[in-house]
Amino acid sequence: EMELRRLLHQVRCWLRVMFVLANNLYCIPTYLAWMWVIFYPLRLLLPPLYWAIERQLFRLLLLMVSFWSWSAEYYVDEVGEDVSECYGDRSLVLVNHQSTADVPLLMASFQGKRSVTEHLMWIMDRLFKYTNFGAVSMTHGDFFITQGKDTRNTQLQRLRDHISEVYLRRGLKWVVLFPEGGFLHKRRATSQRYARANGYPVLEHVTLPRVGAMKTVLETLTAENLAKTHKGEEPLKWVVDITIGYPDMGKPLDLFVISGGFRKQCVVHMHYRRFPIAELPIHDTEALTKWLYDRWAEKEDLLDIFYRTGRFPGRLHQGGGDEAEKKDLAPLRETPLRVDFNIVWIVLVHAFFIMSTLFHVALFRWLFSLVPLW
């Protein structure tokens, strides 16, 4: 009986993998067909309308990705500060990076945050450009960064240009950045060697972050800079800090596990904090680096508590300390907020993408039939 259960579980998992592959096939090409064929004239004639349509389709695509983890019973609970007042403001989102599951789980977390999802700009490694979702991200306006000392200055200038030419023009809001520059298991040893050599904290649950991209985003989107380059544009108002905690002593999920549901049901916790931009020493690299390192040391403490107790504290240093002394503290969530979805809406969105795919297949078949064959 045990063997039969194991076999049935494997069959179910591989059927889920096939479903996720099919979901990609009837969602991504039809999104590209809408944006690069059907609606493309609007991009030239009425750009605001074109990008308004794109943002809605992008939001629906992210809902499809979010559905993968939710349907596998990998749930997201949000704890810490209530950052709802940041939803409509331009914000820089800083997240610790553990695995390929981080992005789809963040997509799930963002789904319930009013208009946040469609106004996201992700900053990610250029290798993501060559994945199944790469063409969607390129269309939407995400930024792909190349790692390495040799290209650092060039990449940061590209980021400045991208913010001016894409992020601002398309009315995007939240910039999502993984300052560690890679997965925890890949960077931990290097980070610890660097910390020991330079007198920084030796971290176990996170790695020392890099400040370059963060500083570039902050400086480019200050009110002073925008007054010179993009008068009337809204500056950054908040830094939203998210700490992702995986269960089982920090054993992260990954995208393949999410696709198939290979692991047992679990809850991933996301601890939210927010900091007014006015608190950050934006133009002082050394002070900004210290500020960022301090936040990552706090993430280390948060995760240490989480792995020992199974839950995040609402706020560090409740009885005192730097974080408790922050001005304008956000309200804390009294209980974890479970990210949930409306199954009827999900079914309707699946139906929309399937019908769109059938429409585009029929349309392109008809167009090809008009081409004479020799």
Automatic annotation (TrEMBL):
Gene Ontology BP terms: phosphatidylinositol acyl-chain remodeling
Region forming the signal peptide? none
Which InterPro entries does its entry note? Acyltransf_C, Plipid/glycerol_acylTrfase
Q: Per its record, what are the GO molecular function terms? A: acyltransferase activity
GO cellular component, alphabetical, reads: endoplasmic reticulum
UniProt entry tagged with the keyword Chloroplast: no
Residues that span the membrane, as ranges: 14-37, 343-368
Q: Which UniProt keywords apply?
A: Acyltransferase, Membrane, Transferase, Transmembrane, Transmembrane helix
What region holds the Phospholipid/glycerol acyltransferase domain? 91-215
As for family, the record states: Belongs to the 1-acyl-sn-glycerol-3-phosphate acyltransferase family.
Q: What is this protein called?
A: Putative lysophosphatidylglycerol acyltransferase 1-like isoform 1
